[in-house]
C-alpha cells in the first residue's frame, strides 16, 4: 500500500514539475518575442529617422493653432456662411500637417492607429514620430504652410497651458503679435468684400487681436467658442430621465405609507368604539 502511494506521489510530482517547466518555457518565449518586437520596432524607427528630412515647423504648436481656429473662429465663419480664401493663412489647406492629422485614428486612451499603414501606437507622440519618419513625403512643405508661425497671434499658449502664457508681458512681443493678428484680419476678412467679411473682421479683432496688450484689460477668445449648450441640454435630459422614475417611486412609497397609516388608524378607532361600554 505504501509503495503504491509513493508511486502515485512521484507521478503527481512529475506532472506538476512538467507543467511548471512548460509555463516557464512559454513565459520565456513570450518575453523573448516581445523583446524582439521592441528591438525590431526601435530598429525600424532608427532606419526611418535616417531617411526623414528635417521639418522646421512644430507639429504640436500647429495642432494647437488648428484647435484655436476650429473652436474660436470656425463657428462664426460658418454662421456667416463665409468662404475663406486660399490666400488666407488660416485656411485649412494652409496646414502642412492637416492630411496626416486627418489620418490619425484614436481608438482609446492607449491606442492610436495610422490611417495610412494601419500601425498601432500606445501614445499620440509615438504616432507623431511615425508620421515624421515614415510618411514625411505626404507633408505639404510649400511656403506659408506652418500654422505654428501664427501661434503668437492666435494665443496658442493659452490653449496649451504653457508657462509662457503666465510669464511677465513683453510689450515688444505683444506689439509684434498684434501686428501679425491685424494683418490676418485684413487678409482673411477684407472689409471691402461685404457685410459678412466686415463683421468677421471686427470679430477677429475682438476675439484675438485686442488681447495683445500688457494692460490686462482684454482676454483672448472674449466672444466665446463652440456652443456647449447641446451637451449641457443632453446631460440635463439624461439626468431627468434617471431621476423621474425615482421621484415617482418615492411618491408611490409615501402614498402607500399614508394609506397604510390611515387604515391602521381606522382599525384602532373602530376597535376603541366597539370596546366602549354601553
Explain this structure.
With 278 residues, the protein is mainly alpha-helical. It is 62% helix and 4% strand. It has a 3-stranded antiparallel β-sheet with strand order 1-2-3. Helix 1 (2-51) crosses helix 5 (124-134) and helix 8 (171-188) packs antiparallel against helix 9.
Lateral arrangement of strands in the main beta sheet: 1-2-3
Return the string of H and E elements: HHHHEEEHHHHHH
Q: How many helix segments?
A: 10
Structural class: mainly alpha
- Rg is 34 Å
Mean pLDDT: 78
Number of strands: 3
Task: Calculate the terminal CA-CA distance, rounded to whole Å.
Answer: 93 Å
Given as residue ranges, the uncertain stretches (5+ residues, pLDDT < 50) are 24-43
Q: What global shape is seen?
A: elongated
Q: What proportion of the residues is helical, as a percent range?
A: 55-70%
- How does the major sheet shape up? 3 strands, antiparallel
Q: Strand percentage, roughly?
A: under 5%
GO molecular function: transcription cis-regulatory region binding
Keywords: Membrane, Transmembrane, Transmembrane helix
Amino acid at each position: 500500500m505504501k509503495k503504491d502511494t509513493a508511486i502515485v506521489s512521484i507521478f503527481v510530482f512529475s506532472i506538476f514539475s512538467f507543467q511548471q517547466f512548460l509555463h516557464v518555457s512559454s513565459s520565456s518565449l513570450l518575453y523573448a518575442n516581445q523583446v524582439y518586437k521592441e528591438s525590431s520596432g526601435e530598429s525600424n524607427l532608427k532606419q526611418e529617422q535616417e531617411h526623414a528630412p528635417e521639418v522646421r515647423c512644430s507639429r504640436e504648436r500647429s495642432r494647437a493653432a488648428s484647435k484655436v481656429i476650429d473652436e474660436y473662429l470656425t463657428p462664426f465663419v460658418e454662421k456667416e456662411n463665409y468662404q475663406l480664401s486660399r490666400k488666407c493663412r488660416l485656411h485649412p489647406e494652409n496646414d502642412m500637417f492637416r492630411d496626416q492629422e486627418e489620418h490619425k485614428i484614436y481608438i482609446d486612451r492607449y491606442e492610436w492607429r495610422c490611417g495610412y499603414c494601419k500601425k498601432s501606437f500606445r501614445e499620440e507622440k509615438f504616432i507623431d514620430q511615425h508620421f515624421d519618419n515614415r510618411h514625411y513625403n505626404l507633408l505639404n512643405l510649400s511656403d506659408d504652410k506652418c500654422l505654428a508661425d501664427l501661434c503668437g497671434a492666435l494665443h496658442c499658449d493659452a490653449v496649451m497651458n504653457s508657462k509662457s502664457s503666465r510669464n511677465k508681458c513683453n510689450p515688444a512681443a505683444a506689439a509684434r503679435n498684434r501686428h501679425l493678428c491685424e494683418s490676418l484680419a485684413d487678409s482673411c476678412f477684407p472689409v471691402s468684400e461685404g457685410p459678412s467679411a466686415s463683421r468677421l473682421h471686427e470679430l477677429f479683432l475682438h476675439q484675438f487681436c485686442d488681447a495683445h496688450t500688457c494692460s490686462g484689460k482684454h482676454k483672448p477668445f472674449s466672444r466665446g467658442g463652440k456652443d456647449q449648450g447641446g451637451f449641457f441640454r443632453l446631460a440635463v435630459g439624461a439626468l431627468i430621465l434617471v431621476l423621474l422614475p425615482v421621484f415617482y417611486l418615492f411618491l408611490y412609497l409615501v402614498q402607500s405609507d399614508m394609506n397604510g397609516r390611515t387604515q391602521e388608524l381606522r382599525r384602532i378607532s373602530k376597535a376603541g368604539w366597539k370596546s366602549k361600554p354601553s
